[in-house]
Every structure is written in structure tokens, then in C-alpha cells.
Design brief:
- The protein is α+β, with helices and mostly antiparallel strands.
- Helices cover 31% and strands 18% of the residues.
- It has one domain: HIT-like (HIT family, subunit A).
- It has a 5-stranded antiparallel sheet with strand order 1-2-3-5-4.
- The N and C termini lie far apart (39 Å).
- Bound molecules: guanosine-5'-monophosphate (5GP).
- Guanosine-5'-monophosphate binds next to strand 2.
Length: 139
């Protein structure tokens, strides 16, 4: 498998070289809003430790990371008033991965509301408002 590239966009966000609308951060993980949300309240959760995807992440980091995914998913559902959530995680280009720093997508869901197509920039004000709703639920 290709080696981890420290110049990927999420590594730059972790280093503060690129902006992000953050909703949660601790010693293990950072959660921030997807700039092309496929659902209202679409959040990405990434580890601070470098890993390309599920194939090379340290199992201990993965265990800690999935606990953060659960925490943020519960807050995204509660804060957004959603009925459920889809969790997505892609591996390598063939698996749909575009950014090569492992990340979990949290997509709040409502009955009968389909996901939007990928690759469409979201409305900045709406994303910021959704971030505040999720942060409020995180307490
Ligand atoms: P994946 O690798 O899981 O297929 O997709 C990467 C995800 O990262 C996409 O949902 C895309 O919208 C999101 N994304 C790509 N570039 C940026 C960025 O610069 N900032 C943020 N917040 N999200 C991004």
C-alpha cells in the first residue's frame, strides 16, 4: 500500500495550515464539518496520529477513534434532531477514498431524505449553524 502522505488536506488541517469548522477535539481525534456535506450536519472524525486508512491504522488508535466517532455521532443526531445516522469510511481510490488520512463520515439522516450527491460545496452559513447545533449537544 502507498505510504502515508503528510501533505494531505486533513494533515494540513491538523497542523493548523488549513481552516476547518471544528466541533470536537481531544488528544486522540478531531471532528470537523465536511465542506461538501451530503447531509445536513455531515461531520468527519479523524485521528491525530497519521494513518492512510483502515488498512494501516494502529489497532489501539482505531479503538480510541471509534469511541470518538460514537460520541460525535450521538451529538450529531441529538443536535441536528435527526432520526438516525449513516457512518461511512472508505479505503483506497477503488474503495471511494479521496483524502488519504483515515476519516469516518457521520451523516445525520431523516426518513425519506436521500443523501445529496458528492462533490457539491455546501453553504458556509448553514455549515456553521449546524456545527453550533452539534457543539451544543456535545456540551
Ligand atoms: P472520502 O475520502 O471519504 O471519499 O472523501 C473525503 C471527504 O472530505 C469528502 O466528503 C469531502 O467533501 C471532504 N473534504 C475534502 N476536502 C476538504 C476540506 O478541505 N475540508 C473539509 N472540511 N472537508 C473536505
Amino acid at each position: 500500500m502507498t505510504a502515508y502522505d503528510p501533505n494531505n488536506i486533513f494533515a494540513k488541517i491538523l497542523r493548523g495550515e488549513m481552516p476547518a469548522t471544528k466541533v470536537y477535539e481531544d488528544d486522540v481525534a478531531l471532528a470537523f464539518m465536511d465542506i461538501m456535506p451530503r447531509a445536513d450536519g455531515h461531520v468527519l472524525v479523524i485521528p491525530k496520529a497519521p494513518a492512510r486508512n483502515l488498512m494501516d491504522i494502529d489497532p489501539g488508535v482505531l479503538s480510541a477513534l471509534i469511541q470518538r466517532v460514537q460520541k460525535v455521532a450521538k451529538a450529531a443526531v441529538a443536535g441536528m434532531g435527526a432520526e438516525g445516522a449513516s457512518i461511512q469510511q472508505f479505503n483506497e481510490s477503488a474503495g471511494g477514498q479521496i483524502v488519504f488520512h483515515i476519516h469516518f463520515h457521520i451523516l445525520p439522516r431523516w426518513t425519506g431524505v436521500p443523501l445529496r450527491p458528492p462533490g457539491q460545496m455546501g453553504d458556509k452559513a448553514a455549515i456553521a449553524a449546524h456545527a453550533e447545533m452539534i457543539k451544543a449537544a456535545l456540551g
